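Notebook entry, structure prediction.
Reason for the run: the old model in the group folder had no record of what sequence produced it. Starting over properly, with the input documented here first.
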Amino acid sequence: MWPFPGTSGPGRGAPPPAAARYAVIDTELTGLDERCDSIVSLGGLRVAGGRIDLADRYYAEARPASRLTPASIVLHGITPEETRGRPAIGGLLAGFAAFCAGDVIVGHFVEIDLLFLAKELRRAGRPPLANRALDTWAIYDWLSSRAPHLGGPGLARLRDPRLPELAEALDVPRCREHHALADAFVTAQVFQRLLLRLPRWGVTSLGHLLRIGDPRRAAEGQNLPLA
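New structure, fully documented this time:
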């Protein structure tokens, strides 16, 4: 069930973005080629009422369907030995889908995560995720390209769209990188800070936020591999 009615646009009675429930997610992969790479780990945290619920989280490591390369091991630190006893990704999808439930999915360049999840759901014979989604880079890029609606200093334009740089711009403490749950936590804090700033840019409804945070805007703007 979609969490809030009336999300087609701003207007009287439309719920503010902070009132919605979000599942902030991240995946670690063997590489970025959807045709031959696969998911190594999944992480997620709940954001509800503008607050991060650290007790409501998801984390699991999978036995990847493709080979772990030295380059990917250096990034996420998960070795072939560690994954041998893990379930295949197909055995984790039901739990992950239940975690996301009807929430809005949030991620940093989340279109890549969604692409890999869609592939694995098809392979497992499971229905696709029906959740709407938001991308933190798309939101930040949109806001930083405009003057605040209520005055005051705007957000700095960033040349580097990676998560650590975005976190630094919003004074989010950095922690372990390329760990699905740790990156989900950083992304959740980034998103939380963006939620607090939205009214200054005149973004007062979930429908408006869904338009400016469309993951396709982030993916197309950075020419990310989506096939």
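Summary: The beta strands are 21-29, 39-48, 51-61, 104-107, 133-135.
The old model has been moved to the deprecated folder.
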